[in-house]
Amino acid sequence: MTRESVFVRLLHAAAYAAACAIFAAPLGPESTTVAAGLGGFTGSLLGAFASESRLRSRVLALGVVAGGALAALSDGIFRGTYVVADALGPELALAAGDALIFFFLAAGGVFTLRSLGRRHRAIGVLEISVAGLAVAELFAVHRGGAINRPFELADHVLSMGGDPADVFVAVGAAGALIVAILLLRASKLRRGLFHLLAAFLLLGALGSLFPFFEIPIPDVAQTGVGLRNDGKPERGEGEPKDQEQLDFDNQGGRNNEPAPVAVVVFHDDYQPTSGIYFFRQASLSHWNGSRLVHAAEGLDDDVADGFPHPVLEVKAPSSVRGRREVVTSVGMLAEHFRPFGLDAPVRFEAETNPDPRRFRRTYRVASRVLELSDVELLGARAGDPSWDEATRRHYLEAPDDPRYRALAERIVRELLPPDLRDEPLAQVRAITTWLEREGVYSTNVSLPVTDGEPTAAFLFGDLVGYCVHFSHAAALLFRSIGLPSRVATGYAIAEQARRGGSALLLTDAFAHAWAEVYLEGVGWLVADVQPINSLDPPPPLPDADLTRLLGELRRGEARDEILGEDPPSKLPSLHELFTGISTAALSALGLALLFLYGWKAYRRLSGRGDPTRVYRAQLDALAELGYRRRRGETPEAFARRLEAVLPSLGPLTDAHLASAFGGKRRLDGEAIDALARRLREELARDKHPLRRAVAIIDPFSWLGSR
Amino acid sequence: MNNHLSTSAAGAPQPLSVDSANEIAARLRRRLRAAVKGRDAVIDLLLIALFADGHVLLEDFPGSGKTTLARALGESLAPDPSDTLPSFRRIQFTPDLLPSDITGTNVFDPETRRFDFRRGPIFAHVVLADEINRTSPKVQAAMLEAMAEKQVTIDDVSHPLDDLFFVIATQNPLDLAGTYPLPTPQLDRFLFKVRMEPIERAAELEVLATYPNAPLALSAQEPQVSRAEILGARRAIRGGVAIAAPIKEALVDMARRTREDPRVAQGASTRSLVLLLPALQARAVLAGRDYVAPDDLAALAEPVLRHRMSYMPGVEDPERVVADALAPTLDQLAKAGLRRGS
After folding, report:
1. For residue A188, what pLDDT is reported?
2. What is the phi/psi pair of residue A117, to 5°?
3. pLDDT in tens, A320-355
4. Do B204 and B38 meet the contact criterion of CB atoms below 8 Å apart?
5. pLDDT band at residue A220, thresholds of 50, 70 and 90?
6. What is the extent of the structural domain holding A102?
């Protein structure tokens, strides 16, 4: 076993310290993380020393047991007895006990691993896998390309205006360096430094290729919560393929991982009475014989028909009775056809995009949210007296199927007491309640092929469907008993997704369609159906930290709080860094080559006639072709070894030695040059010209001559 | 009395050049190589010790040619008319030998009624001390004193030995029963301790090929070497072969490396380095150089240093210790040479 240099030893210890700290970080507070790092450092150093001692490997393996025993002991002393707790106070004693446990466990484990790893190559492999695992552990939480994890890194980098992806690549590169360090079996300081430098330059060279190939961005469509939704335009259950009609087809299997589509930031506090936020984007009210589709111009004017430039007022806002204005800001992560807003939006305003790399569109919405409870809404009449006949008919148009009306009347009769049977709101609630009770939610539907009226097939069939089916069924049932209604599409998300914060992250899993009924003086009232029975699992709520982070990004606060307005990025981009490194490396390499060639040429060509310098020049030429004096070989012995091939080397060696060691008989300069010439001829006979050409190109050849 | 033994009377050796020293060494080497096959490395070490004024301990099995080698060396010396000393003597050491058996003793001469000193077998130019570890420590001490001081002392009278006095001692590395192993301080008297390996197959066949002739006949083709020539060559080598500063630095650093080696109880001493210097010079001359080169150090570090160090118990490969200290030293030396020459 070769000795290690102090440098390599410290590098190993630092790598182990980092690995232990990474492992310990999720298990305890900072003090234990630091303690584990220190333990790894100490264990690595002790292990390296122990591996050179005469201790048997079996004894070294006991290091891990000793570490465990010491940890148990400190646990017993610090936490099991009152001695330390009395002296330090319980909190400090507990923290110190924890730290000691981590320290000893890390030190013992690393000691054994390191000492045995130095002795046995097989265990050395374990060392490397520990380092690899540490890096993997660091990024395990980062899987799926989530930009908000690991929090410590991403938060900081984002707040500095940098791209976390760059930093992750850098950390991965550092991890690779750590593994390379552990692989370093070079015991010599110089060789260790050289290996490290080479690895670093390689990384730099790879990194400088990034501008050409780009850092790969995870495919968000498949990996879920991603950096940005760069896929095709958002397409949820509520967004029709051709924009004008909803899809009744099988939606099963679509739902793998929900992709984020937008973030909504509330400027005013608002909790909906129903517990669900509805964001309306479009409405479908025109009966085309088989389903509800977009109405013609002039109808449904409370829906925006384009993005604001810079302001877009809704033409037919809802009434002001019982409503209050709530302002929200929306940042769209995926492309949408039109803006959406909290029910019911009245004004859209364009807003400057605080982070164009993150958000596709940003705007601000003022909505009039309904704050009246159902009791307060009782007595409102359906429809609007100001409507002309055509409008009224438009919102009541329904299939000729008599079963709708029969069912609706039966529901009203069965569910409502006689005094409420003529009350529009009560009728609405009765029908939605019935649908919720009787229907089964599933995106995996198998509707029988019908003559083009899928709602009837659903409603009078097995009542298994998703929001499109339920909203149509509700709307058509409403219309059958004279309640003007339509289907609205957008997003619906439970209030708890806010988790007390002011931001909401919408994913495509929350795209929704629901029925709405028009009440006089109130406007369009959401009449959503949320079936009690569901065959599908509820969609996962978006990650709270990602929601908070994106909310801060949307508000532009993440930067402002540190750097003020219009912050330039303080972090050098990874590309620039790598380009800088590789430029520096290349020029250093060029300079080094120039120096090597210059020095080589000087040694080869200088000193004609001087025996020693001519001899050295010939030694260089020999070394270049692979003839080197062995360690412990005298120059004479070297010459004798090559006598058969290079007979002129002997006399030249003698001339050099006589000159160097005080002999009185010297050859004159011409004789020496003649000897050197003869030697060159002998070399030319001995080696192929190609081999000699390669030798001349080699800039390092003279370093090996001795 | 025997005043011809004093060096001055024998004629001060003529100052020679390094080249002629090389010629003398080469002549001796040719003679020895002709007489003894397959022992070139040992012959070189023997000659280096001879010219560096040291002695050699051969570790060898019986019948490996050491007597032939020593005799060939002795016979290569031309008889000096003014010299009454034999060129070669062999002493077989046994446990019952007495110091006077080798040094000589005072004998009463009834005619002159005086005690005359009768010289022992040690009074010769080349002495083969066979199985030196078989005799008692008392005899070993007398022998080694003679080697170190180049004189013997009988009854408070010192009798100097010749300047050329050169001892080749042998010991059997395996048959150790009833022996008195030489302690480290006494091993220190020998410049080299040479372990002789079995010779090559081809060389062994050559030995057999000389069978009908006397083994030493072949060496007679070369002219002999005179005592004065050897002494002159010694002086030429001592004064004429350069030892550059990096060589000395390398020696010191190598010695320090041996002392820091955990396998070594006692590293190379400073004296061993001092002794190494003439040996390096001698080898340089043998190689035809007038300067000490890294090759000399590479060749001589082991035979000079190994038997002068003591090792920790349980060290199984003492021969690696010197080699391990030598290798970085040679690299350092090669680098220093490249720096220095330019």
Report:
1. 61
2. -60, -35
3. 677 888 899 988 888 787 888 888 888 888 888 877
4. yes
5. very low
6. 6-213
User: Do residues A612 and A536 both lie within one domain?
Assistant: no
Determine the pLDDT at residue B251: 93
pLDDT in tens, A303-324: 877 788 778 887 766 666 778 8
> Å from B232 to nearest chain A CA?
20
Indicate the residue among A184, A213, A242 that finishes a domain.
A213
When CB atoms are compared, the residue of A613, A654, A661 closest to B292 is A661
A279 falls within a domain? yes
User: Do B342 and A610 make contact, defined as CB atoms within 8 angstroms?
Assistant: yes
> Which residues have C-beta within 8 Å of that of residue B251, sequence separation ≥ 6?
B273, B276, B277, B297
How many folded domains does chain A comprise? 3
The pLDDT of residue A39: 93
Contacts of A144 (CB under 8 A, 6+ apart): A218, A223, A224, A225, A226, A257
Closest CA to A702 of A604, A620, A630, A595: A620
Q: What is the pLDDT of residue A186?
A: 54
The contact set of A with B (CB < 8 A) is 607, 610-613, 615-616, 619, 629, 631-637, 654, 656-665, 706
Asked if the Cβ–Cβ distance from B331 to A631 is below 8 Å, we say yes
- Contacts of residue A661 in chain B, CB cutoff 8 Å? 242, 244, 246-247, 291-294, 337, 340
The burial class, CB within 10 Å (0-12 / 13-18 / 19+), for B282 is buried
The pLDDT > 70 percentage for chain A reads 80
User: Across all residues in chain A, what is the average pLDDT?
Assistant: 79
Same domain as A313, residue A386: yes
Nearest CA in chain B to A661: B244
Residues A161 and A74 in one domain: yes
- Please give the interface size between A and B, counted as residue pairs whose CB atoms are below 8 Å apart: 87
Is B326 in Cβ contact with A663 (below 8 Å)?
Answer: no
Instruction: Please give the average per-residue pLDDT across B270-291, as a whole number.
Output: 92
> Can you give the pLDDT at residue A240?
40
Return the higher-pLDDT residue of A224 and B271. Answer: B271
Report the pLDDT averaged over residues B289-303. Answer: 92
CA distances from A501 to A329, A363, A364, A370 (A): 14, 20, 18, 21
Q: What CATH number matches the domain at B241-341, 3.30.70.1130, 1.10.540.10, 1.10.8.80, 2.40.37.10?
A: 1.10.8.80
Other beta carbons within 10 angstroms of residue A54's beta carbon come to 6
Is the residue at A358 inside a domain? yes
Helix axes B270-286, B227-240, angle to 10 degrees: 110
pLDDT, tens only, A529-538: 888 888 888 8
ipTM score of complex: 0.85
One domain, residues A201 and A275: no
Suggest the residue from B295, B300, B329 to mutate for an interface test with chain A (most A CBs closer than 10 A).
B295
Last residue of a domain, one of A540, A573, A595: A540
Separation of CA A133 from chain center: 18
Token reading at B108: 């009463």
Per CATH, which fold does B19-222 belong to?
Answer: Rossmann fold (3.40.50)
